[in-house]
Amino acid sequence: MEEWYHYVFLALLGVLVAFINTLAGGGSLLTLPILIFMGLPPSVANGTNRIAILIQGFANIVGYKSKGMQISSRFIWYLSASAIVGTLIGSKLAIEIDERLFNRVLAIVMVVIVTFMVLQPKRSIADIAERLTGKHMIWAVIAFFFIGIYGGFIQAGTGIFILLALSSINKMTLIKSNVIKAVVMTLYTIAALILFGLNGKLDWEIGLTLASGQALGGWITSRWSVNKGDGIVKVLLVIMITIMSIKLWFFN
């Protein structure tokens, strides 16, 4: 980065993205294309984005723990282990894929995910008993393996898939799902970072600048109500992703 305001922009972007990530997921739909537009090769942008995600994950966990939320259980560890295995596969694919093809895959994913976020019906699962054992545990572990593959490959929108899996398979509330999301994504991001780092796909200066904002935003938002702000997030994502997906598809 050549100008001082690039650092300020990335830090402020990190705060916004942490807000989006913590409440629902999908913040990487903003950061990943922006990093590419700033000049990073797609594979390096993909890896560098994980630095901020990891730091934000730790901030989320600290925030949730300070509010008395449970961040460790057998259920969480099983899901994390499954996601880590999948992440290693997905990260390997992301490192080796042609960069022009990656841009187009990202453009498609951005449109699909934001469409899903806008059109998905609101659910109320507060009065439904959680299903964390037996076949529901097995289905969740399988789901998180494939979520891990996707997360390792592109990351953008992974949080949405996690919330969908936990609400539909295990009937978990939004707040509990967000806690599990924070723990699982933090653990599998460590695995992804190691793989991207070993292949020289990390820009630490940009990653840590973005991470400074995401750490602050993640800590604040995790302590705030997770049931607010969805409408604002959706409007912002629709506008930004429409512009960025067009840019990625037509102007590589």
Task: List the SSEs and their pairings.
Blueprint lengths: L3 H20 L4 H10 L4 H25 L7 H23 L2 H21 L14 H20 L4 H12 L4 H25 L5 H20 L6 H21 L2
Protein model, in words:
The longest helix has 25 residues, at 42-66. Helices cover 78% and strands 0% of the residues. The protein is built from ten helices and no strands. With 252 residues, it is an all-alpha fold. It starts with a helix and ends with a helix.
Strand content: under 5%
What gross morphology would you assign? globular
Radius of gyration using CA atoms only:
17 Å
Average pLDDT metric = 80
End-to-end Cα distance: 20 Å
- Counting DSSP E segments of at least 2 residues, the number of strands comes to 0
The chain-level structural class is mainly alpha
Characterize the main sheet.
Answer: none
Helix and strand succession?
HHHHHHHHHH
**Segments where pLDDT lies below 50 for 5+ residues?**
none
Enumerate how many helices there are, as a single number.
Answer: 10
Roughly what percent helix? Answer: over 70%
Please give a quick description of this structure.
With 252 residues, the chain is mainly alpha-helical. The chain has helices at 4-23, 28-37, 42-66, 74-96, 99-119, 134-153, 158-169, 174-198, 204-223, 230-250. Helices cover 78% and strands 0% of the residues.
What structural keywords apply?
252 residues; mainly alpha; globular
